[in-house]
Design goal:
The complex is a heterodimer of chains A (395) and B (167). With 395 residues, chain A is an alpha/beta fold. Chain A folds into three domains: 23-221, 3-Layer(aba) Sandwich (Rossmann fold); 231-305, Ubiquitin-like (UB roll) (Roll), CATH 3.10.20; 310-394, de novo design (two linked rop proteins) (Up-down Bundle). Chain A contains 15 helices and nine strands. In chain A, the strands form two sheets. Chain A has a five-stranded mixed beta sheet with strand order 6-5-9-7-8. In chain A, strands 3-2-1-4 form a four-stranded parallel beta sheet, with helices on both faces. In chain A, strand 7 and strand 8 form a beta hairpin. By secondary structure, chain B is α+β, with helices and mostly antiparallel strands. Chain B has two domains: 3-64; 76-161, Glutaredoxin. Chain B has helices at 3-15, 23-33, 41-51, 55-64, 84-88, 91-101, 152-161; strands spanning 76-81, 104-105, 115-118, 123-128, 140-142, 145-147. In chain B, a hairpin with a 2-residue loop joins strand 5 and strand 6. The termini of chain B are far apart. The chains are: A alpha/beta (395), B alpha+beta (167). The interface between A and B is large, with 57 and 37 residues.
C-alpha cells in the first residue's frame, strides 16, 4: 500500500472511531451521571459489553456487580495507572490529555459499588505527570464535594516495580508493603485494599465507562466484534515509519490489516501485548484477530522488521522478567532464570537444539503453576518466539 | 546520627500520621531529602524504631522497589530505557558509551536493572524497563527530563550541558 493510501485509511479509522480523545464538554456530565441510579449505570455498562482494557478482559459490569453485592462498611475504587508493560504508553497519553474523563469514571464506579474513596496508583516513572494530574484531581474533588457527594480521589505514586501492575500486588504496595501478589481467591472485589471490597481498573477502562454512561452503550457496542466489543487504544512502536504512536482503533482487526496500515510492509513479527504478550509471525498475520477471540492485548503492538534478531528480542524479555519477578513463588523465580540461561546455552552451542523442547515444557509448567499473571505470562513470549523463530535462537 | 536529622525524620513520620501504607511515602521523602539521594543504614534503623515497623520489613520494602537506593547516588542521574522498542533502536549503544566514558563503581556488567554510580559520585546511571515513550525510542531521562530519539552524538551534547561537566 502506498503512503498516501495509508494516510487516507488511517484518517478514515480516526474519523470512525473517536471516543477517548474526542474533545467534548463534560461539564454537565457529572450532573447527568449523579441523577442516574446505580442500577441504571450498571445496566448500561453491561449492555455495552465493556471488558477490562488492561489485557485480561474481565467483564467490567461483573466486577462492579460483585463489589456492589459484597457487604462491607468501606469499599474502594483503584485506578491502575502503573503502566509498566514494555511497549505500552496509552495510559500516559490518556492521563495527560483526558484526565477529565478518567476521574468521572472512578466516580461512576464508586456510585455503583458504594465506595467513598478512590486511589490513582501512578507509576513512579510517570512522576512527571504528577503536578498536572494533582491539580486536576484537586479540582475534581472540590467539584463533587460541592455537589454533596462523599467521594474523593487520592494519588499514590509507585516506587518502581513492574509486578505492582498486578492488582493484588498493587494493593499490597498501597498498603505500604513489598508488592508481592496475593493468593486468589479471595479476589479484590471481595477482599482488597485493607481487606475491603475493591475494584481495580485500568485507566482506559474507566474512560470507556464514563463515555458509556455519558453517551449511552450504543456508541461503544456498535464497534468491534461480539466477543470484543468496542474500541481500544493501541500503542505502536518498533519498526513503524509513523511518528505518532497512539491510535484508537476498533477491536477485531487482523494483524495483516494492522501491519499494512502502520508499517511500510517489511514486518516479520509483531509482539502483541508487550513483554508478557504473544509474538505473531508473518505467516499468521492474515488469520490472527486482535481481540479476545485471537490475541488479546493491553494495547502494546511492537513491530519488528526483517533485520531484527528475535533471539535478541527474546533475550531482552527474559532478562526483564528475571529482574522483575518478585521472587515469591518458585515457578516464576527459577523458571525465568532457567529460560534465560537456557536460550543462552543453546545459542552458544553448549546445549543441543532439542533442549529448547525441554524449556518449552518448563514454560508450560510456569503457565499453570505460577502464582500471578506475571509468572504465568512470562512464558508467552518464550513459547511463541521459540515456536516460530527456532532457527534464530539456535544459530 | 545527628539530632537535626532525627528531628527531620520525626517530622516526616508525623506528617504521615494515621494514614495507611505510609511506609513507602515516608521512605521516599527521607531519601529525597538526603544530599546523596539514598537511605543510609542508620536512617533505616531509626525509621523502623520510630514507626514501630520491624527493621526486616523496612529493609524488605527498600530492596523491593527500584526507586530506593542503599548506596549514595551521583549528582546527576541518567536513566536509560531498555524497553523493547528502545532496545531494538539501539539504547544499548548509549549505555556502552557511558560505560566507556566514566569509571563506575561496582559495575558487574549486564544491563537489566542497572544502578551504577561513578567513583566521584558525579553521575548515576540506571536502566529502566520502559518509560512509556516508545514512539520516541530510544529514550533516556536526565535529571528528571525525558529526551527522545537519542543518538550517541546527542548524548554527548547532553553530557556537556550538565552542571559541572567534565566532558
Amino acid at each position: 500500500m502506498d503512503s498516501s493510501t495509508r494516510e487516507r485509511r488511517i484518517a478514515e479509522h480516526k474519523k470512525r472511531v473517536n471516543l477517548i480523545f474526542k474533545k467534548c464538554v463534560w461539564d454537565d456530565f457529572l450532573d447527568r451521571a449523579l441523577e442516574m441510579s446505580p442500577e441504571d449505570m450498571l445496566e448500561k455498562v453491561k449492555e455495552s459489553g465493556l471488558r477490562g482494557r488492561g489485557g485480561a478482559g474481565f467483564p467490567t459490569w461483573l466486577k462492579w456487580k460483585f463489589a456492589r453485592e459484597a457487604e462491607a462498611d468501606e469499599k474502594y475504587v483503584i485506578c491502575n495507572a502503573d503502566e509498566g508493560e514494555p511497549g505500552t504508553f496509552k495510559d500516559r497519553a490518556i492521563l495527560q490529555e483526558q484526565a477529565g474523563k478518567v476521574l468521572p469514571g472512578m466516580l461512576v464506579c464508586a456510585k455503583v459499588i458504594g465506595a467513598e474513596k478512590g486511589f490513582i496508583y501512578l507509576r513512579g516513572e510517570y512522576a512527571y505527570l504528577l503536578p498536572a494530574l494533582s491539580q486536576e484531581v484537586e479540582n475534581f474533588n472540590e467539584k463533587i464535594r460541592e455537589k454533596g457527594e462523599r467521594f474523593s480521589i487520592e494519588i499514590k505514586l509507585g516506587s518502581g516495580a513492574y509486578v505492582c501492575g498486578e492488582e493484588t500486588a498493587l494493593i499490597e504496595s498501597l498498603e505500604g508493603n513489598r508488592g508481592e501478589p496475593r493468593n486468589k481467591p479471595p479476589f479484590p472485589v471481595s477482599e482488597g485494599y485493607l481487606g475491603k471490597p475493591t475494584v481495580v481498573h485500568n485507566v482506559e477502562t474507566l474512560v470507556y465507562a464514563s463515555i458509556i454512561i455519558s453517551e449511552g452503550p450504543e456508541c461503544f457496542k456498535s464497534l468491534g466484534t461480539s466477543d470484543s466489543a468496542g474500541a481500544k487504544v493501541f500503542c505502536i512502536s518498533g519498526d513503524t515509519d509513523l511518528d505518532e504512536g497512539i491510535y484508537e482503533l476498533e477491536m477485531g482487526m487482523t494483524i495483516k490489516e494492522f501491519v499494512e496500515l502502520f508499517s511500510d510492509g517489511d514486518i516479520k513479527a509483531v509482539q502483541v501485548g508487550g513483554a508478557s504478550g504473544h509474538c505473531v509471525p508473518r505467516k499468521k498475520f492474515a488469520d490472527t484477530i486482535i481481540g479476545f477471540e485471537g490475541v488479546p492485548t493491553g494495547g502494546s503492538m511492537v513491530l519488528f522488521n526483517s533485520s531484527r534478531s528475535m533471539y535478541n528480542v527474546l533475550h531482552n524479555y527474559l532478562e526483564f522478567f528475571e529482574e522483575e519477578s518478585c521472587g515469591q513463588c518458585t515457578p516464576c523465580r527459577i523458571g525465568c532464570q532457567q529460560l534465560l540461561k537456557g536460550i543462552e546455552a543453546v545459542k552458544s552451542g553448549e546445549k543441543p537444539s532439542e533442549y529448547l523442547d525441554d524449556l518449552v515444557k518448563l514454560a508450560g509448567m510456569m503457565k499453570i503453576s505460577a502464582k500471578c499473571g506475571l509468572g504465568q505470562s512470562a512464558a508467552n513470549p518464550f513459547i511463541s518466539i521459540v515456536e516460530h523463530f527456532r532457527e534464530e535462537i539456535m544459530y | 546520627m545527628k539530632a537535626a536529622l532525627k528531628k527531620e525524620i520525626d517530622g516526616i513520620i508525623k506528617s504521615y500520621d494515621g494514614t495507611h501504607g505510609s511506609l513507602l511515602g515516608i521512605l521516599e521523602e527521607i531519601q529525597k531529602r538526603n544530599p546523596h539521594n539514598y537511605l543510609p543504614e542508620k536512617t533505616l534503623a531509626y525509621t523502623a524504631k520510630k514507626t514501630g515497623i520491624p527493621p526486616a520489613k523496612v529493609y524488605g520494602v527498600v530492596t523491593f522497589y527500584s526507586f530506593f537506593s542503599l548506596i549514595p547516588q551521583g549528582k546527576h542521574c541518567i536513566s536509560i530505557c531498555r524497553g523493547t522498542a528502545c532496545h531494538t533502536k539501539g539504547s544499548r549503544k548509549l549505555l556502552d558509551y557511558l560505560r566507556s566514558s566514566f569509571e563506575f563503581e561496582g559495575d558487574t556488567g549486564g544491563d537489566a536493572k542497572l544502578f551504577i554510580t561513578t567513583k566521584d559520585r558525579y553521575l548515576t546511571v540506571r536502566t529502566v524497563a520502559c518509560f512509556g515513550q516508545c514512539a520516541l525510542a530510544p529514550v533516556i531521562e536526565v535529571d528528571g527530563k525525558i529526551y527522545g530519539s537519542v543518538t550517541v552524538e546527542e548524548l554527548k551534547k547532553i553530557l556537556k550541558k550538565l552542571k559541572g561537566s567534565r566532558q
